[in-house]
Predict the structure.
Amino acid sequence: MFSVKQRLSRTAFTEYFKVGRRFQTPALTLVHSPTAPFGVSTVVGKKVSKLAVGRNRIRRRLYAAMRRSFDASGVTKGVYIVIAKPAAATYTREALATELTTLLALPGKSR
């Protein structure tokens, strides 16, 4: 998990959600602001899973995959907001991690 300092507050989330650049995969959307200080957030709505247990499971899996990916690549700057789509509920842990890794590589390719 990320520390409280690394997670976005509600006001910061709203600000970066408006101005961030969006990248899409079939199960996830990334809102990215590269010049901001480091911050992460995930959003898993009720359309993804009706039960809170399912939403929290997906959220924990996303945070864990983000932590592994950021530690491996040494990311220390930028805001990353990951939004799960309904298709994310059908993905396994490994498939979701692969999808997230693919998604996190997209901002670097678009420069």
